[in-house]
Write a structure and sequence with these properties.
The protein is α/β, with parallel strands linked by helices and 643 residues long. The protein is built from 21 helices and 9 strands. Among the domains are: 123 residues, no CATH class; 229 residues, Spore Coat Polysaccharide Biosynthesis Protein SpsA, Chain A. 44% of the residues are buried.
Length: 643
């Protein structure tokens, strides 16, 4: 009778790991062979895809079989893989062959990995209560990996799909009668006048005539900051020979940016404006921003069109470059994929919304930290669809200090959690809630719960380690032996991760390993603030809306630890836990202790990335501190003229 022990699944797991590695290589090779297709879905001959499937599966079969000295033991998973891949090819024709291979390997990997782990727990001869806790954690992990895979199918569609429903680029300029009137809305609060004036200059140069620009300054007390904007509106109108620009200074006005936009929506903007474009005060628009995007609104189902956050003036700063490359894979890869599956959301700048749709949805949410993405939920709930394009139409400024970078991410993370807490009923399945396009409900829930899910995962891992330590102190059990295949799986997984991560950066525009490393360091430096924001978003208490300041250089911290005390303390604590795990090696077993220590050391590294980023930000501030002279001089001159 066949013995289904843990070792039975070793070769199957290794086979699937090699398949995943080959799939990643095929994706990278596809984009490298045809650079003209960079950033575009792939469409290739069927014969090439058949060769890829056969080549990938057979290569993985031979590799796993040779390592185990027994090709026959790999044949069952080989046959199951081919059958599942054929099923995926038939029922999910939108996937490219590398995408099909990847999805098949991931799906089977979850199932086989769960069986392998269950048998490992049973063979470890833990105390009964530890075994029950471990199986409970396994069940939670299976659920987490399964829903996470659903999200990745959408987010990584650019890497894995060759048939798309929605356009991936804007059409040629709209040259008809320009019948859509656009109200461009430019909210400001305590902004450097020279930055906003240049933003206005770019809007004055748009290749589109049927528009107005509403510049609204809300709650700025210093006249030296808003008077130059009022004067510049008049100057631009004079140059253009008509009143394109209108200026509003309103104080007091509650609701932060959302309050300012609602003020314009409620009677101040042009009555006949069909569309509303929102642009942040520091974003320099391309001239074809309107002329290339308004044509999408010929389709009455389209409620909004969003283009990526993108940034300028980062190239000569390691700190700003790290921030930039942390932003871009999400903006250029993930969001177009989410849009393809019906979940496009607005992100606050360089977007256009149908006025009728926005009013029907109820305007902007002044209670939410991310009023920009929140409104897209309600727009879809009232029957409209959206499009997110991967093409850049404007570039803004990156926060100059690490503290402000963290505050920005806090807002971006806590806001979606607030959305889920407020709108969870909208995400119930029909007919309990209105229907929404595609996978909207699933993708919104997964995006909103991500920080909470991460926190629960870390808490579960820490609780499991503590339980293991308690068991060591109260029960006698043999040191745990980690199967040798685990280390090989980790190495193959690390190589696969690097190939896929490098490809994501490459398709976002990166050209160097340094960009990838700095982008990943920046991402890890936000670990603490993401976890904190996830908890804060669950609270019913209102959260203060904190803008990203543009006068931040003067307030740069003198030490990288001044703004990273929590991260530094947590990093130090994880170093101590790493050492503690290694000291328990005689009781735990050397390999088990090493595995636990590696997990703690990884978390320590993530937390220590924060002071590293803060140090780069301080160096950047010291290099740039003298460049704020023109803005400061402009402000001083206006203050003298108004006193």
């Amino acid at each position: 009778m066949f013995d289904f022990s843990r070792s039975t699944f070793d070769s199957s797991l290794l086979f699937l790991a090699f398949v995943g590695l080959i799939a990643a290589w095929l994706m990278a090779r596809t984009f490298r062979v045809d650079p003209s297709q960079q950033g575009q879905p792939q469409d290739r001959p069927a014969i090439d895809e058949a060769v890829e499937l056969a080549g990938a599966s057979t290569t993985a079969l031979l590799a796993a079989g040779l390592l185990f000295g027994d090709v026959v033991s790999v044949l069952p998973i080989y046959a199951l893989f081919l059958a599942t891949a054929a099923f995926a090819c038939y029922f999910v024709p939108r996937l490219s062959m590398p995408g099909t291979i990847w999805l098949t390997a991931e799906t089977l990997g979850i199932a086989v990995g769960a069986l392998w782990t269950h048998h490992f727990i049973a063979e470890a001869e833990f105390p009964r209560w530890i075994e029950q806790l471990a199986n409970l954690g396994l069940f939670g992990s299976i659920a987490m990996f399964t829903v996470g895979l659903s999200s990745r199918v959408a987010r990584e569609a650019l890497l894995t799909h060759h048939l798309w429903r929605l356009p991936t680029a804007a059409p040629a300029p709209f040259s008809a009668e320009q019948r859509f009137k656009v109200s461009i809305q430019l909210p400001c609060y305590a902004e450097p006048p020279e930055v906003v004036k240049e933003t206005m200059n770019r809007l004055a140069a748009l290749h589109y005539d049927n528009y107005e620009v509403c510049v609204i300054d809300n709650n700025t007390q210093d006249e030296a900051l808003w008077r130059p904007l009022e004067a510049h509106c008049a100057l631009l109108n004079k140059r253009l020979g008509r009143e394109h620009f209108r200026f509003f200074h309103v104080a007091p006005l509650p609701g932060a940016k959302a309050g300012a936009l609602n003020y314009l929506l409620d009677g101040q903007m042009a009555d006949d404006a069909d569309l509303i474009a929102v642009i942040d005060a520091d974003y320099y628009s391309r001239p074809d921003f309107l002329s290339r995007l308004v044509a999408f609104f010929d389709d009455p189902a389209i409620g909004y069109v969003q283009t990526p956050h993108d940034y300028r003036d980062y190239e000569n700063s390691d700190y700003l470059s790290a921030c930039y490359w942390e932003y871009m894979p999400n903006n250029k890869i993930d969001m177009p994929g989410v849009s393809e599956y019906g979940g496009a959301f607005t992100i606050g700048t360089m977007c256009i919304l149908r006025t009728e749709a926005l009013r029907k949805a109820g305007g902007w949410a002044e209670w939410c930290l991310t009023e920009d993405s929140e409104v897209s939920v309600r727009l879809r709930a009232v029957g409209y669809e959206g499009i997110y394009l991967g093409e850049t139409f404007g570039r803004g400024l990156i926060p100059d200090t690490f503290d402000d970078y963290k505050k920005q991410r806090f807002r971006w993370t806590a806001g979606p959690v607030q959305q889920l807490r407020r709108h969870w009923r909208l995400f119930l399945p029909a007919p309990l809630a209105p229907a929404m396009p595609g996978w909207t409900k699933v993708l919104e829930v997964l995006r909103c719960i991500y920080p909470v899910q991460t926190l629960l995962g870390l808490a579960s891992a820490f609780a499991g380690t503590c339980a293991l330590g308690f068991a060591l102190a109260t029960d006698n059990f043999e040191p745990i032996d980690i199967p040798n295949v685990s280390w090989l799986l980790m190495m193959v997984g690390a190589v696969t991760w690097w190939i896929r991560t490098s490809l994501r950066y490459q398709l976002s525009g990166s050209t160097s390993v340094k960009d990838v490393l700095h982008g990943e360091i920046a991402r890890m430096s936000l670990t603490y603030v993401v976890l904190l924001a996830g908890v804060a978003g669950l609270s019913k208490r209102p959260l203060a809306w904190r803008r990203t300041p543009k006068f931040a250089l003067e307030a740069a911290d003198p030490s990288p630890f001044a703004s990273t005390v929590p991260e530094t303390v947590l990093g130090g604590a994880h170093v101590l836990l790493t050492i503690g795990a290694l000291l328990l090696a005689p009781a735990l077993g050397f390999e088990m202790a090493l595995l636990i220590a590696f997990g703690f050391a990884t978390m320590a590294f993530r937390f220590f990335c924060a002071p590293y980023m803060a140090a780069m930000a301080i160096r950047h501030a010291r290099q740039e501190i003298g460049t704020s002279g023109p803005v400061a001089a402009d402000v001083t001159a206006v203050r003298e003229a108004t006193t």
